Amino acid sequence: MSSPLEFLRFIDENADRFIQRLGQAVAIPSISGDGTHRQDVFKMGSWLEDQLKSLGVETKQVDLGKHTMDDQELPLPPAILGRIGHDPKKTTILVYGHYDVQPASKSDGWDTEPFELVVDSETGRLIGRGSTDDKGPIMGWLNVLEAHKALGLSLPVNMRFCFEGMEESGSEGLDDLITSEAAKGKKGWFDGVDCVCIVVNLSQSDNYWLNTRTPCLTYGLRGIKYFKVTVSGPARDLHSGAFGRMVHEPMTDLVLLMSKLVAPDGTILIPGVDDMVPGPSSEETAIYDALDYSVQDVVDAVGAPITLSEDKTTLIMGRMRFPSLSLHGIEGGVRETQHEEQARFGESARRKPWIADYKHWNYEAAKKATEAVYKKSPDLTREGGSIPVTLTFAESLGVNVLLLPMGRGDDGAHSTNEKLDRSNFIEGSKLLGTYLYAVAAATE
Amino acid sequence: MSSPLEFLRFIDENADRFIQRLGQAVAIPSISGDGTHRQDVFKMGSWLEDQLKSLGVETKQVDLGKHTMDDQELPLPPAILGRIGHDPKKTTILVYGHYDVQPASKSDGWDTEPFELVVDSETGRLIGRGSTDDKGPIMGWLNVLEAHKALGLSLPVNMRFCFEGMEESGSEGLDDLITSEAAKGKKGWFDGVDCVCIVVNLSQSDNYWLNTRTPCLTYGLRGIKYFKVTVSGPARDLHSGAFGRMVHEPMTDLVLLMSKLVAPDGTILIPGVDDMVPGPSSEETAIYDALDYSVQDVVDAVGAPITLSEDKTTLIMGRMRFPSLSLHGIEGGVRETQHEEQARFGESARRKPWIADYKHWNYEAAKKATEAVYKKSPDLTREGGSIPVTLTFAESLGVNVLLLPMGRGDDGAHSTNEKLDRSNFIEGSKLLGTYLYAVAAATE
Ligand SMILES: [Zn+2]
Ligand SMILES: [Zn+2]
Ligand SMILES: [Zn+2]
Ligand SMILES: [Zn+2]
């Protein structure tokens, strides 16, 4: 079950060098959402590929074509595929990560230069854009590979890698790549994959530890569906001075309509929606009861006593399993004295929910590895948002997918002063290696 | 009652030259809301002052100080004051106008260059920024002055002028100028003013003819009051994936609150507000009944059958006398999956209502002048919006104020392809001159 002691010791002894490598990665401003940084995303992809190669991984850059962003046609950053180990007796694990980052500049309010990794020796924080999302987790895998190469240890599993450079900008081209690569079977790079491990700290779902104390494994995502409602009225924008109380105003109707969708206590007023999700089993309730989480944690996280329930289990189920309806993006009637032709809210898009079998050996292995490294059982969580690639892997490969967060709930991905704690990086690297051994043991 | 025939003939005979002068004014892009054009606003002020001087008007440029716009400190364009005629036996009329304009560029969708006056000989339209708002009306007064100078006629009244260059940007500095100048009494430029005539086509109140057929006099403005409502919740922006259905969302509460303010049929739901405005007298109702206006006119103007009433008089009272509540500027929860710290709508500001005595000789004179020039009785209207300077003149000078629109309801001030019809410009110039004679006759 446990990894070799020499592996754990190697990680500890090389911690400073590993942090330096994270610094090299952070120094490349691979911002996928800013066309002027597109060459940096390519540079980061090549840097990552070189690292993998130097650690014995066979790699391939996959051209994903072009796309249009801000009226400019740009080449998409490549997917970096990799494989190491072809032992048919070993289990094969596919690992996903993304090497692009969110925009950042000091003028946004960063205390330090975002693309220079700062090691705060007092707090142990490694501060920089991409430290937790998602360069730190990717470096975790490099650390594991390097340790085994340096020690002359063979990996306990076969590994496959899939890294993309467009995650922060909609993962363009990735779904097609995964499904076509999966469809290739024995000829594809995902041949023989037995399970998937995603070590991403995706801000969209805030897929981190629930807090700063207890590691977690995530086995479900609520999914998202956007609806857009448009109320039309006059054929052009009108002046409320000239037409107010003469004609029907779209914004008045839209606001009334929206007020009928969700109650202030979170109840969804659209008939039948709340009924579509059956109540939890006692086994599921027991999972929520066991979480290292309190009502006060939520109050602390949001900075105000505005929780919808005083009961911890009810509260966490609001996030993890019940449907939630939020009102967003109301447009129209922008100018003070003008009411517009149309009033509208929301955007139309859909991401399906995903739930994994948390009793699968993939989860059992991650649980045992967590207990070995952190001396603590992980929280078993679901998240309120969506990580589309999770579902794509699960559906196209037909295998169990594990979300194994490396960071803490206060890392601030997508925010200023993004950080990864040194202990999360170093112990997290140990966790990844130990997880490989636990998978090997569980599937022997 | 009527003006000298030679005056009317002079206007007709010099029409093309007057249109050329309007073209010179339009060619100066005196956009007050764009700091890069501030020198053009000054240039326009000096051009106007030179014109007045050449027509025998004594003038003064009043420095209104500085202001800050878009983080830049800029000198305010001067007010141009003028006076001509000091005959104590004559009535003194104060005229207001503004020489600044709204921004315009061909890329906004103009069919022609906005700062080159285009004369469409087929439709008779004079197309260009400022043609109707407010350079055309100002040129109307210059035409009257020029005719009298050229013909050697003395004006039937004493005239005072107050032109500003910041109307499109909040009239900064003007209220103080008017009140301080009024307070100077005999030593001020407004000494002896008996009435005010404002020939502005202010988009904010759409103070034009009600349609394209019948001239109007405007004797009331409904006024405006803005309220801003802010609903606060969490201490920072939250992710709806992570906190949806865990905490109270400001936008949910705000929408519910807003839905209680006004009904889709225009009824104001806040107790007592609709009751604050007493119903119309039969005399007032008769004014609305007499207006050259139909339900179909409203449908045509807004481009859709969305009127709140099928009864013409009820419909027009919604605009002209009843309170109206519009919902605007809803902010918060902008990003698809994010709900913000605060949700808020509206802006806080106030402009008081204004109603003039339409039986005053000032209005009687304008009515008779309109009948003489247009062979038609003018509509007697109130408007739904606000023209702040109207109230400032009325209160600081204590005299009757007349709004005498020159343009038609379809002129498109503040829009692309702003125009003034040639006939409105030329007949409008005759109307202004005839109005002066009518005032003189009425106050003899
Ligand atoms: Zn990420
Ligand atoms: Zn991210
Ligand atoms: Zn104007
Ligand atoms: Zn205007």
UniProtKB/TrEMBL annotation, chains A, B:
One of its GO terms (biological process) is proteolysis. One of its GO terms (molecular function) is peptidase activity. Keywords: Hydrolase, Metal-binding, Protease. Belongs to the peptidase M20A family. PANTHER family: BETA-ALA-HIS DIPEPTIDASE, CARNOSINE DIPEPTIDASE 2, ISOFORM A. This is Cys-Gly metallodipeptidase dug1.
